[in-house]
Amino acid sequence: MIETISKNIFLYASQSRALNTAAKKWGLRFGASQVVAGETIESAMKAAKSLNEKGLVCTVDHLGEFVSSREEASEATEYCIRTLDSIAESGAQCNLSLKLTQLGLDIDVDFCLHNMRRILDTAKKHQNFVRIDMEDYAHCQMTLDMLRELRKEYENVGTVIQAYLHRSLQDVKDLKGVPLRLVKGAYKESPEVAYQDKKQVDENYMRIIREHLLSGSYTAIATHDHNIIAKVKEFVEEHGISRDQFEFQMLYGIRKEMQVQLAEEGYTMRVYIPFGNDWFGYFMRRLAERPQNVAFAIKGLFSK
């Protein structure tokens, strides 16, 4: 009960424009620096190179929420392009993750599509890959529609499917052949569209993982749940699925020892590295996801 209340508080805070605006002035506070790799491209590249040295590959995400103007969306687009250029210049083993709302999805779909084409052209030039992050349920179908349009022209783009949504299994079937990151889900959604029980979410998560792997599609399993990871290891072994067909993914700063262990075992282990000054919403969702993460905030608060 207390855990549910705590989760709801953090999720509510993540959607607050006022708190988000204030947080930009605070700098990386309250433990956020442990899960956000600084505020600049340079800091993100430094983090990526450091992780590469440990045998880990990466994806970087320039955080941004509540974009409401074409100017802001254009600035975010340019930042994504500069980030891809910086990845190429640094030689980091790293790709790019982004959110369509940051690129103007809520402003104008065609405008957002134009911005995505510019980013994907840059990624293609550098032989890199771009992952479209999935946002809340209100943006789910819009995101998948955008992906399908882009996949007509580009192979170097994929997206994310969230296991807590009732629709996820059918979406995974429809996206056979598309590189997907599979996650449990981090937004607060209604019972009409999402499972509310953890056991049901976990069961559906394994269901969509098995579906995508057995279809021969590249699958990124993004979880910190050691039980899920153990089940995936067993499943791929039983079905003779090559390690070249999947990877594990975890968030920057969380379960670092397990990340290195998986890499040492010969699995591709990709670390999701968020950066930028628009960190508040991301950090609140991380606190809501796992009660253990609250320890980061307490430690960060008293270390200032």
From TrEMBL:
Manner of cofactor binding, per the entry note: Binds 1 FAD per subunit.
Domain of life where this protein originates: Bacteria
Pathway where it operates: Amino-acid degradation; L-proline degradation into L-glutamate; L-glutamate from L-proline: step 1/2
Domain (Proline dehydrogenase) ranges: 44-296
GO molecular function: nucleotide binding; proline dehydrogenase activity
Cofactor needs: FAD
EC number: 1.5.5.2
Chain positions recorded as substrate binding sites: 99, 285-286
Gene3D superfamilies per record: 3.20.20.220
One Pfam family it belongs to: Pro_dh
Keywords, ordered alphabetically: FAD, Flavoprotein, Nucleotide-binding, Oxidoreductase, Proline metabolism
Reactions the enzyme catalyzes: L-proline + a quinone = (S)-1-pyrroline-5-carboxylate + a quinol + H(+)
Biological processes annotated in GO: L-proline catabolic process to L-glutamate
Residues annotated for FAD binding in this entry: 134, 162, 184-186, 198, 223-224
Protein name per UniProt: proline dehydrogenase
Lineage, opening ranks: Bacteria, Bacillati, Bacillota, Bacilli, Bacillales
